[in-house]
Design goal:
The chain is built from 6 helices and 11 strands. By secondary structure, it is an alpha+beta fold. The chain is elongated and about 80 Å long. The two termini are 52 Å apart.
Length: 259
């Protein structure tokens, strides 16, 4: 024989401080209110501490009931939250793309990302499946992608870039550039990634030199601000050297949903 469901007056339930600081999920609360109006009760009991009457789990249900003017709610006495219902774990593909295949697609596309068209060093060549969800260790089944596009991330250099004054001074002294804007425009368009760690990236601007760039703790028009903060090497009398793409397989350009 089932036990009769317990109820408790809303006025008897205390709300912990952390819950009060939490921004309510309006979409969830509205859906719960609609459910209550249709059924006359909550979809689940609210968990309340047996001694203190402190809310343990079910804050959204508490708010929905309160907004609808309910005096009592079904409760369950306990000290732990319900286990969250996690979505099924996605299993990564067991297919491994060999170094030979990765190099083959890099060579076939002349080292250009098939998404953003940026040139890349072969050490940073990545891939995307030509047919979504189908991964095969074969060049014809894979697009060549840069490290950003392969992760559905915006291009690292497609944002606001500034140059440290001391670095810009060296650039102006040794190269054809005489202003920051001109250098930044070419750097954003033609720089090739040659190094990366958690703190900064290293890019090589063909014919000019290699530079370290990092993300600053600020934004410009909602975009991250990045700074060229160090010159690793600058070629004396350096001039930008742009090498046109010489070969491609001509696959349809993949379209990303940026994360």
């Amino acid at each position: 024989m089932k036990n009769k469901q317990q109820t408790l007056a809303l006025s008897e339930i205390s709300i912990p401080a952390p819950f009060k600081k939490t921004k309510p999920n309006r979409e969830k609360i509205n859906a719960l209110k609609e459910y209550i109006q249709k059924t006359g009760t909550l979809d689940q009991t609210i968990i309340v501490h047996p001694k203190t009457r402190m809310l343990v789990d079910g804050f959204a249900r508490y708010l929905a009931a309160k907004e609808l003017g309910m005096n009592e709610v079904p409760v369950q006495f306990g000290t732990k939250k319900r286990p969250s219902k996690k979505p099924p774990k996605k299993h990564r593909s067991q297919v491994k793309v060999s170094e030979e295949t990765r190099l083959a697609i890099w060579q076939a596309e002349d080292g250009r990302c098939e998404v953003c068209k940026r040139a890349m060093d072969k050490r940073f060549a990545r891939w995307l499946p030509v047919e979504k969800g189908k991964i095969e260790d074969h060049p014809d089944a894979l697009h060549l992608a840069c490290i950003d596009c392969s992760r559905n991330q915006p291009e690292y250099l497609r944002t606001f870039i500034q140059v440290d004054k001391s670095v810009m001074k060296k650039i102006e002294q040794k190269t054809e550039y005489d202003n920051e804007l001109e250098f930044v425009n070419d750097f954003r368009e033609y720089a090739v990634i040659v190094g990366k760690n958690k703190e900064f990236r290293t890019y090589w601007l063909p014919g000019i030199g290699s530079f370290l760039i990092k993300t600053l703790d600020e934004k410009e028009n909602g975009l991250p601000v990045r700074e060229v903060f160090q010159a690793r090497s600058i070629k004396v009398n350096g001039k930008l050297q742009i090498k046109p793409q010489e070969r491609t397989r001509g696959f349809k350009r993949p379209v990303l949903q940026l994360s």
